[in-house]
UniProtKB/TrEMBL annotation:
The lineage of its organism: Bacteria, Pseudomonadati, Pseudomonadota, Gammaproteobacteria, Lysobacterales. This is Type IV secretion system DNA-binding domain-containing protein. Keywords: Cell membrane, DNA-binding, Membrane, Transmembrane, Transmembrane helix. It is found in: Cell membrane. The chain crosses the membrane at residues 42-62, 82-98, 110-130. The keyword Lipid metabolism does not apply.
Amino acid sequence: MTTEKLPDDLGTKERTLVMRGFGPRPTHLSPRDRYLDLRTPVFLGVLVTSLVALMTFTALHLVPIARPPLGLKSALMEAARLMLYAVTLGNAHLGPWMSQTTNDLAQMGLIFRTTLAAFAGLGVGGWIVMQQKPTVGYRHVSGIQLRRGWEAEAEARKQSQGLCGHYEPFLNLHPDLPLPKNHWTKHAIFLGGVGSGKTQILWPIVDQLVKGHRKLFLYDVKGDFTQGLVADRNPRATIVSPWDARSGVWDIALELAHDRQLIQAFATAFIPEQGGSSSAFWTGAGRTVMAGILECQYALFGTAWGWTQLAESLALPAADIKGLFELVKSDYARVLSQADLAVIDQALAVIGDDPNSATAQSIFATIAAASRSMAILSAAWGVADSFAIERQRKAKRKRWFTMHEWVHADERQLGPKKRLIVRQGADRDTTGKIIRALVDVAATHIVSPTLPDDEHGRTLAFVIDEWPTLGKVESLPSLIDKGRSKGCVCILAAQDTNQIQLAYGPEQSKALISMVGTHVICRMAMGESRKALAQNFGTRKVLVYGASETSSPSGTSQSGSWKEEAWAVVPDTHLSSEVGLDLTNPKRPLIKAIVSLGSDPLLLRWPIFQAPKIGQADCPAAWTLRTNLDAIDHQRRSSVKVAVALGQKKSTGDGGGGTDRETAADREPESSALPFGLPDFLR
């Protein structure tokens, strides 16, 4: 009996015992162990060898040759001598044992025929014996099962054909797994720890989107995609990062002017929920005040405002912000709609009569974090003179972008702006707010009824690596649920399901994972997340063979029976031991991961992608190299009309907190106070 160790097809961390012997399956073997009973293969081998040798010799015997007359005894003697002659290849030292008849038979070709027949029989018989493989002690009955190796590649091609149908493939998830557009619009999630190969699998997908001239929103954490897509002279994408000198500028005034809901989405992104339900009131109140400040920007400047003006307004003292609301409500009521005035009324109600009260101060403390991020954006993207914003907007049209343009415009008109690469900057909190705001605003445009359905024509691809580190993106569930018909494709990557639960809560995180149509599982570290992911694959029914021995005075007898059991489709240890980087062939390293499209999961292997490097990952902006505070403290400048207006109010002796309602009511806003036109919905 021989034994050896081989990997188990179930993917368990332990290596499976393989045994060969003469007799039934031993009782001490587990169902996963392989065993080969050699009695049947050896019997078949001997039988086939004899039959093939006999048939071959008979066929060769039909060729006529001159044969000397031999009796039975002489023929047997000559056959033995022929075999000896064949084995020794006609050794001259054996001449005394060879008769003239033996030499004559050898010269007539009989030894050649005998040898050829013997080798033919041994070859066929040996091949049949080698085809007998050790088998496990179970049989698959029902349910999905893990496919691996060549079987996984064949199953991938089969699933691809079934999903594509009469549709053309849109993107290749794997060289053997091209998928149609209507499957990619069901979105995809990549899960795997640090160094598990997620980026290596994502890179070919991004490369296909770029070569296909698709709209792409990409969050680049490490800078690999920026190096490969943004050249110094001919960039194929637009960088979005306040800390990068090559960054485009988000035209926030034009962006939020398209829909009133965009203001709420923007405020929600910059003032996220903190501390659970206990801080819900302060978060909601802070968002209301910020929405009111945004409405005031349109009332005072039309669309001729930007990050500097917004940062200045947010940095005003509480009493001055209350005075700003009262000023706009009294002097600019005619240029605002009732809905816009209602937003300002809500902000005033939240602040209350005393802006210095404990409640009001807690609300403004919530806004302080947003104000800090606005100061950074003001330093990077701001224009201090509001009268120069329109000139900047026209002069730098290729760099200024809006998500409304990205969603609605034709891909051929956008140029590099059809690919937005958001780089992670020095301040992760501000980076998260920018991305949340961009995605929330884009989602508002996408799910809006004004955007017609076009699942197979339009492509709006979101590739977000390290997705949970951004915090809770409020619009993501609706984007996954409702963005499919608009051509939206979300590809999200995370290290751990626990990260998703921290951002979205246990229930919503489970819903998000289950709503996605494609799951790619890379190497996971041991822990609860690994167990939970393995459980998501479910179980399958198998018949397990159980052998037993019975001892009696006459000897020992063995019997066996089959019973049904439920086994995990993918054991949790498989997510650590059988996926990740495969260095079996150092010259051709591979990335192994499990792909689930809703049917049998596939353990596939990806070749290492050689990513291009045509540019720099980082190019520090000039403002980041300044050491004085003026570089990021633009809100101290006095160029904003808000500060001017409030200064005039203070001169009346009101201390900046109140307003002269009678004077404000008698005074109508002049056209010169609004140097640029207002959006239609604000008129």
